[in-house]
Amino acid sequence: MKKIDHIGIAVKDIEVSNKLFESLLGVSAYKQEEVQNESVLTSFFKNDSCKIELLAAIQEDSVIAEFIEKKGEGIHHIAFEVESIPDELERLKAEGFVVLNEIPKKGADNKLVVFLHPKSTNGVLIELCQSL
Entry's SUPFAM superfamilies (predicted)? Predict the structure, then answer.
């Protein structure tokens, strides 16, 4: 793994949360993007080396909507940048980590992504992301 790429935060209202993080970080979102296959609207903030992804559901049955219903707004995942998702998956599976999606899918911010099950990572959803 190269580095932490971003921290994903589930939010109910992307516009309200955009204003909050603009005030908090002192910068505006550099990108807003809808990810259809996840039914989510994202906003990205970057302040120096810190990158935050806000995630808001665009459908009531989306993973983010379910997360907020169960746990409320807050940290949804930590994403690590990797050179090669297939190589990292092979290594991590050999170490006993449970993978949620074996086949990488297109995520936000021009990345391919896979997720590790929180039950194998101390309750934290881990995303591995690779630039396209």
Answer: Glyoxalase/Bleomycin resistance protein/Dihydroxybiphenyl dioxygenase
Q: 3-class secondary structure for the chain?
A: CCEEEEEEEEECCHHHHHHHHHHHHCCCCCEEEEEHHHCEEEEEEEECCEEEEEEEECCCCCHHHHHHHHHCCEEEEEEEECCCHHHHHHHHHHCCCCECCCCCEEECCCEEEEEECHHHCCCCCEEEEEEC
Which tens digits make up the pLDDT trace of 83-118?
999 999 999 999 999 999 989 999 888 899 999 999
